[in-house]
Amino acid sequence: MATGELWREPEVLDTDVAVVGSGGAGLMCVLHALTARPDLDVTVVSKGAVGRSGCTRMVQGGYNAVLDPEDSVELHLRDTVQGGKFLNDQSLARALVDDAPRVINELETRVGCFFDRRADGRIHQKAFAGQAFDRTVHRGDLTGIEIMGRLRDQMFRLGPRELEDVRALDLVHDAEGELAGLTALNVRTGDPLVVRARVVVVATGGSATMYRVAAPAREKTGDGVAMCWRAGLPMRDMEMLQFHPTGLLAGPSRMTGAVLEEGLRGAGAHLYNATGERYMARYDAERMERSTRDVVARAGYLEIMAGRGTDEGGVSIDISHLGSGEVERRFPGMVARTRQIGQDLATGPVQVSPTAHFHMGGVLIDADCRTDVDGLLVAGEDAGGTHGANRLGGNGVAESTVFGARAGDTAARLARQRPLRTPVQTEVRASLARAYAPLTRSLGPWPFDLTRRLKEIMWRSVGVVRDGASLENAGKELAALADEIEHIAVPGPPQVNFAWQEALDLVNQVTVARAMAHAAAWRTETRGAHARSDFPDTHVRARYLVQRAGGDGPAGAIASEERDVEFSHLRPDDLEGRPGS
Amino acid sequence: MGEAATADTNAGELLRVTVTRSADDARSEFLVTRIRPMTVLDALLAVQREHDPAVAFRFSCRVGMCGTCTVRVDGRSVLACQTDIPADTVRIRVDPLAGLPVVRDLIVDTGPFWQAWGSVRPYLVPGEDADVGMDGEPAVIAPDSAERRAIDPALDCIGCAACFSSCGIASAHRDFVGPAALNRAMVLIADSRDDATAERLRVVGAESGVDRCHYIYGCSAACPKGLDPAGAIRRLRGRRFRGDR
């Protein structure tokens, strides 16, 4: 197909720093890059509304940071590494705990956030699971709106170029193979765009939407990771996907998967299977429903998979024994959420299921967000290593803002050193041909059913509890799906065409899904969020799999190598004798 | 909402959805299968997935936090994801927000809303001697202080523009910065950490400011987060006559 038949000659835009994604990591990156060097030309490329898409916005719980003199960053590091089952890249975990208090300072004094206070006027910190100290900073239970709302306001002061409703497609290189920028697609006009940039920062968020029951915002379709995958970057911990134990079940409604907060179990909620049994007694008789996120998620999933779930495929959570007035007073948001779907947490049981929540795996980075490719930085959920095999509640928004800030600092430095380069036309054309292909076909499936199939495969076979046979099967099913998505045909014009956009999302999701299934089959042990029914024990030696594309396209081969975790700050035996270890 | 079921309709089975389209020749009437529960967002997704993938609307988080799925349902400005379609409803009509240019179908250009928001200098302006940045110390302010009592109930705006669309003045392009921007201005004016009060008071006291409000309370009735922008406007008007924040 000749250029110009389906798309206009792409407009070329030059910028110093192109930031892909506009959540917590993306906008913190903009703030830091422009604070370090106000003269920089910074461009935000966002598939959704700037500052209003993605998941930082949806954060309810809060932000872990060491502020109290009685607390210490060493303790926060221990909690993070212990929660991550020693799979963490400890240099990243260290950067997280060191910078989190400083980013809280910045969010308060420069960005204008105001977090909840104690009676004495200082920042209040609440208890959160898996932590030795009450260190979670919050603004009611809408912490994410305060952070993203105020970061969005900062954009009025800083004035980066905002490309809203513009989907980044691929990283592109010059004739020497150096990173030159990216190709993109304006979702509104349907026109392509080439962004030449000295530095590209990838901060699009994770990919947990690829499960039947999933919590995140719709944009999180693995775009950043898939883009880096196609560019040959190495990934780690791709099998590590965190499930939240209590996602709302609302039938086929889009509300399904929305999180019912962890505090309910802390406050004494009971979980029942369809036979009316309080099944947690069989999984953790001592802690029951108050057991850790991974244990409770696993128990619920096993009950459902063993046929002891409700007709809707869930279990029941019941907190009504506290009295409806008490439940309404303590959990108003959660009560409203259930009433909205015709149930009522205050007066009776509500159907829930584990829900796919957060991807710990992602691109290999160093503590300054640099990758194997010069000029390419990755920050937030697109990067792997900070959380190891499991993430603590409250470390997610800390990661996105801390590493977003670091990426901004690094980008400001790098932008001085790297010239603007011109991408080779064959790469640009190949990227655009791939993106526009669904519009050129007249025979072929719409993407919607294929998305549903992906979500079923991942839920059934790469879900909360996995085994070798299902993972092998999933590998085959995903490979077949990867072939099929290359035949998707969507009708209609290129302007504002969501069927087409879903087709492009699906390519990214399947690319990431295949890497996840492949890594999950490799890890023949149970560690953190990765549970294998055929390998219930944890190896003494902590290893991780580094994967990268070994061939072209979503159906291409996967190359991989094993590495030992480096215990640069903490060793497993440092924690021996410590409660909970 | 909508028309109630009558004995001869298929209540509980089909829902008639009328979507205002931006192209004259585009189909606008759709019958979708009822699910339970069912939000307006579910109905729009069913239209897009079962009938016409080109029907354009926006959404992201589907839990009332992103503020991007705002539409008018039978005339009321609401978040599509937070609006349940009762079991006895057989027909709904969905229009784009009022007062904002349509990009396509139900997607509007929120530019004018954000320009109004920007006009009040919506970001914190720290005092000149304030210690700002990663080494800055967060201010010590008691939660029961007068300023926090004024500010806290007015936070959590998600920028959904339901108030703007519901306001007869703002949505009619009558040179009014609108409820959300004035609510934001009130919050910053009340915030003792902020140093741009004089400038903001000039903006809110100017012709396109608080005096345009006729206290119809459409904004406060529409806010999906339960905020009271009309109350903020009242407070700002009072502020002009007093020296307090």
Assign the structural class of chain B, choosing from mainly alpha, mainly beta, alpha/beta, alpha+beta, or little secondary structure: alpha+beta
- Biggest sheet layout of chain B: 6 strands, mixed
Order of helices and strands of chain B: EEEHEEEEEHHHHHHH
The name of the CATH architecture of the domain at 434-564 in chain A is Up-down Bundle
Described by strand count, sense and barrel closure, the largest sheet of chain A is: 7 strands, mixed
Radius of gyration of chain B: 21 Å
Q: Please, how many helices of chain B?
A: 8
CATH topology group of the largest domain in chain B: Fumarate Reductase Iron-sulfur Protein, Chain B, domain 2
In the CATH hierarchy, what is the class of the domain at 434-564 in chain A?
A: Mainly Alpha
Please give the share of residues in helix of chain A: 25-40%
Q: What is the count of helical runs of chain A?
A: 15
Which word captures the global form of chain A?
globular
Pathway (chain B): Carbohydrate metabolism; tricarboxylic acid cycle
Family (chain B): Belongs to the succinate dehydrogenase/fumarate reductase iron-sulfur protein family.
Enzyme class (chain B): oxidoreductase
InterPro entries (chain B): 2Fe-2S_ferredoxin-like_sf, 2Fe-2S_ferredoxin-type, 2Fe2S_fd_BS, 4Fe4S_Fe-S-bd, 4Fe4S_Fe_S_CS, Beta-grasp_dom_sf, Helical_ferredxn, SDH/FRD_Iron-Sulfur
